[in-house]
């Protein structure tokens, strides 16, 4: 799962020791970086036996796969004298550190003991996933946005509030709620009585029922409605406190107590015969549906129910590996205890061999039935979501057969859920998973380009990047854009330098792309910053690279240049200064249109590029010329360029020419540059 978060360095977590090796330091990149477009953890190891490096990489892959984490990036790179580098994909730094530590500790054990400790290691990793990472519903939407090369920023460390997209085109999600989810609709959905009233007014079938203020009144309502009945909290969720198919006074009154603990009031309804279903509505479409199954264990004539639960459920791979089945603590689960009582059983009962013992009748939606949904069922689900006012809704309905019309079989909609869990659609026990994250992302960003704003990335020295960035920002501002610019660790809005936030804040580039007023962005950084912090964006519309003198070695510079070129989206533009043999060889990897700039019109690279109809910019008789093939255009040139270098000004002029920005604006900027020198 790949979500960008503010970079953090916790000194206490920089190093840790294991039996096999010593981890000297770690570095976590939250987004596009030198290793990958995905967030990764880089760790420097000491005292590692040379023969163990391949085994460590194999162990890391095995751990990541066992807990269903992505392992697109997982490498062990030994150096000399026991030193080396480990790189693995990790959405959060604590998760990457935990996976590495468990791998090292397992690797240090004998094979027999390693097998015994395997389950414990997976449990420790899952605990970190639960504590530190996005929940599966939020993560699937964020990952869908990332697949569109949109940034996904987590807005606080341990929550599910995520910003998707750029600047003014962004959307925010919180689990399966979005910016488009109305507060009034959410409040209506949380009140089951009000929801039923509105649905009934719209002609949508719902079960008869009323609020019961006491256990005695609950039984009175049950008698009036006719048993069996359902008792549930008025404002509960995820089937907590819901009891089904209640037939007698004791069961109804006990169920009232259970429901009251989960909500403010208790609702008693006539029980609709059929199977529970969850239909997921996104916008004007049904995108997924699941059918519920009762959760049960089967007796063997020897084991108690509590022992059967441990073996058949808590030790099941669904519970241990992918966590699509929740672990059951039988002694503390009042709902299951009530269900056992109805069957005249308790947790120490020993069912006969082959006897099925029902534990839960609701909330266990595990069978995908999306392809079977009848058009009439879909119509009623969409109408229910629209009636409440929700753009994303989980519609709970009870029907005998989802392949048949709703009214004809006496079915009903029993609940409308705002911010529904998506887990059941992502990991059904039976049937195929559904791409609900992609469906929600398409709903939030209807067109492939939506969610983006014009973005220019600059790789140059700090001074050159600031000059180029400010000029491009002013040029776009004159066209009506609200421009955000980042240079180093400083953010500018409409040319005004903004206050520095706390040390835990995201990078300046991330803050620009998170700002809801920004309609165009410019992000400038030098090579050292790029190496240390990575990139705030996965793709840009235009990249400008002005080769700089850098203390970094040649191989590192090449990696940085390659990564910057990788950010240029197909159809985008790369404005490149000559003078770097590495850049000249890497330019062929760019997916966008390349423009070479050099003051000398006769430069061999410009000549060869122009011969194949490539774009170039150069100086002729004191004027900037931008050319493609035989076509030429003249751009403004200041009388005195002051602190500018010729390649920098050529890059600015070429960028505006390629983007078809108004020439008059650059003439004003050129005049201002000349005046400032005087």
Account of the 3D structure:
The chain has 678 residues and is an alpha+beta fold. Helix content is 36%, strand content 24%. It contains 22 helices and 31 strands. Strands 24-23-22-25-21-26-27-28-29-30-31 form an eleven-stranded mixed β-sheet, sandwiched between helices. Strand 23 (490-493) and strand 24 (496-497) form a beta hairpin. Helix 4 crosses helix 14 (436-444) and helix 8 runs antiparallel to helix 11 (334-342). It is elongated.
> What's the mean pLDDT score?
88
Structural class: alpha+beta
Straight-line N-to-C gap: 54 Å
Strand content: 15-25%
Number of helices: 22
Strands of the biggest beta sheet: in what spatial order?
24-23-22-25-21-26-27-28-29-30-31
Judging from the principal axes of the Cα atoms, what is the shape? elongated
Proportion of helical residues: 25-40%
Radius of gyration over alpha carbons? 31 Å
């Amino acid at each position: 799962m790949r979500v960008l978060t503010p970079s953090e360095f916790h000194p206490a977590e920089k190093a840790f020791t294991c039996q096999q090796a010593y981890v000297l330091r770690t570095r976590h990149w939250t987004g596009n970086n030198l290793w990958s477009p995905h967030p990764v953890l880089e760790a420097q190891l000491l005292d590692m036996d040379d023969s163990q490096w391949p085994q460590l990489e194999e162990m890391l892959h095995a751990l990541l796969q066992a807990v269903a984490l992505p392992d697109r990036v997982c490498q062990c790179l030994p150096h000399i004298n026991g030193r080396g580098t480990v790189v693995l994909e990790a959405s959060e730094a604590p998760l990457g550190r935990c996976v590495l530590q468990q791998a090292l500790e397992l690797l240090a054990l004998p094979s027999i003991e390693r097998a015994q400790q395997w389950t414990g290691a997976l449990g420790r990793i899952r605990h970190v996933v639960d504590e530190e990472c996005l929940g599966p519903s939020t993560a699937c939407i964020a990952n869908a946005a990332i697949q569109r090369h949109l940034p996904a920023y987590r807005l606080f460390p341990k929550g599910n509030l995520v910003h998707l997209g750029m600047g003014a085109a962004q959307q925010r999600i919180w689990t399966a709620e979005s910016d488009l989810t109305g507060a009034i609709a959410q409040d209506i959905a949380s009140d089951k009585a009000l929801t039923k009233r509105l649905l009934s007014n719209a002609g949508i079938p719902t079960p008869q029922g009323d609020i019961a203020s006491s256990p005695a009144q609950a039984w009175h309502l049950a008698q009036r409605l006719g048993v069996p009945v359902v008792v549930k909290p008025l404002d509960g969720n995820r089937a907590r406190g819901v009891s089904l198919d209640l037939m007698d006074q004791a069961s109804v009154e006990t169920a009232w107590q259970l429901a009251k603990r989960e909500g403010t009031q208790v609702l008693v309804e006539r029980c609709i015969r059929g199977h529970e279903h969850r239909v997921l509505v996104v916008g004007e479409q049904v995108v997924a549906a699941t059918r519920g199954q009762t959760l049960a264990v089967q007796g063997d004539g020897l084991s108690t129910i509590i022992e059967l639960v441990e073996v058949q459920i808590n030790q099941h791979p669904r519970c241990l590996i992918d966590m699509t089945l929740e672990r059951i603590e039988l002694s503390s689960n009042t709902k299951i205890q009530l269900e056992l009582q109805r069957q005249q059983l308790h947790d120490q009962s020993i069912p006969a061999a082959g006897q099925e013992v029902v534990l839960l009748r609701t909330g266990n939606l595990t069978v995908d039935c999306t392809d079977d949904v009848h058009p009439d069922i879909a119509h009623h689900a969409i109408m229910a979501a629209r009636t409440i006012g929700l753009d994303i809704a989980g519609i709970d309905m009870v029907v005998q057969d989802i392949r048949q019309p709703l009214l004809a079989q006496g079915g009903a909609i029993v609940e409308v859920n705002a911010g529904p869990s998506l887990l059941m659609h992502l990991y059904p026990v039976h049937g195929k998973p559904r791409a609900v994250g992609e469906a929600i992302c398409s709903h939030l960003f209807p067109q492939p380009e939506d969610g983006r704003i014009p973005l220019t990335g600059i790789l140059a020295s700090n001074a050159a990047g600031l000059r180029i960035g400010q000029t491009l920002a002013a040029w776009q501002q004159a066209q009506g854009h609200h421009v955000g610019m980042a240079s180093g660790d400083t953010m500018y809005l409409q040319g005004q330098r903004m206050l520095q936030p706390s040390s835990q804040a995201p990078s300046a580039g991330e803050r620009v792309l998170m700002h809801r007023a920004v309609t165009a962005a410019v992000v400038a950084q030098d090579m050292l910053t790029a190496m240390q912090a990575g990139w705030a964006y996965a793709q840009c519309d235009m990249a400008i690279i002005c080769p700089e003198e850098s203390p970094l070695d040649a191989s590192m510079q090449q990696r940085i240049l390659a990564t910057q070129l990788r950010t240029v989206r197909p159809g985008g533009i790369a404005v490149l200064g000559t003078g770097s043999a590495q850049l000249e060889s890497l330019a062929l990897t760019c997916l966008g249109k390349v423009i070479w700039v050099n003051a000398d019109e006769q430069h061999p690279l410009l000549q060869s590029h122009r011969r194949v109809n490539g774009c170039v910019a150069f100086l002729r008789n004191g004027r900037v010329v931008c050319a493609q093939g035989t076509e030429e255009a003249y751009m403004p040139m200041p009388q005195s360029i002051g602190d500018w270098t010729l390649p920098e000004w050529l890059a600015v002029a070429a960028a505006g020419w390629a983007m078809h920005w108004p020439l008059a604006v650059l003439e004003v900027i050129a005049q201002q540059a000349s005046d400032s020198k005087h």
